[in-house]
Amino acid sequence: MMRTIGRAMLAATLLLTTLAATPTPTDKLTTEQLLSHLSTSIDNLKTLRCTVRAKERVEGKYVTAQSTLKLTSSPLRVYLRNQKGIEALWVTGQNGGDAWVYPNSFPYVTLNLDPNGTLMRRDQHHSLLDAGFGSISGIIRGSTQRQDRAFERSFRYTGDTIVAGRPCHVLRSSFPQFRYVSYTPTKAETLTQIANKFGGGEFRIVERNDLSYEKPVPAGKTIQVPNSYGRRTTVCIDQKLMLPLVVEVLDDKGLFERFEFSNIVANQPIPSEEFAKGYKGYKL
Q: What is the residue range of the signal peptide feature (predicted)?
């Protein structure tokens, strides 16, 4: 009898222990926690090496590219080389603020180009200075200039998935209110200033209104501006690194852009000579 009671007590104890170890719904990762972890991981990036595959819609057609990237955050230094052999290097405080660009085409000479200018941003949505996860951070956080934070608040943690064999958390935004709105500045404003007010990025403003990146929009000129970054946005976040592996954005015309990150090496020292114009192997 005592042996039976002892077994029953042992079984009850094991059951209680198991139940105590099983996470309750309140123990699960929340949207706010996931956003916080993601932002912290991006903020804490001191160095980054990775491969980036991009698919971006430009004038109704898709432009694809695969690039190897390395950067340091403080000071900001960025080196990129794509599958066509085009190289770009930008270093804080050097070259008069321009990037060194080797086009790997005639006349095969290194150019000095503004990283935010039309030439360097042709056929791509983002500036070299936003390489890595800079633009993603901006999409999720939004701008302090925006009064309406509805888009940023639309992100939800929706579950988990596997990307290239790595477990990921999935963060999604559904924002059916996405549309273009009319905007008329009362004084001359740069594209960056306007994009910060609406959160839709600079590229679509340029494309929609046939503008250039270098020139401000004059006072009194009415332009069409997207009221947010996308209608549907999906971010797959590596559970170990807490960094994005996939970012996909859809708007009123369908797929706007998709970025895939692989071979990520974060916060490992990168020798400073790898950000020198004359580094071995570079054609700059």
A: 1-20
CA distance to 8, 106, 232, per residue, from 171 (Å) = 45, 44, 11
Would 243 be classed as within a structural domain?
no
Q: Record the pTM.
A: 0.88
- 215 burial via Cβ count (<10 Å: 0-12, 13-18, 19+): exposed
51 to 158, 218, 260: CA distances (angstroms): 26, 39, 8
Q: Which residues share a beta bridge with 238?
A: 168
CATH of the domain at 142: 2.50.20.10
| Total of domains in the chain | 1
Per residue in 164-200, pLDDT (tens digit) is: 999 999 999 999 999 999 999 999 999 999 999 999 9
Ranges of the chain with pLDDT below 70: 1-27
Strands (E), 164-240: 166-174, 180-183, 223-226, 232-238
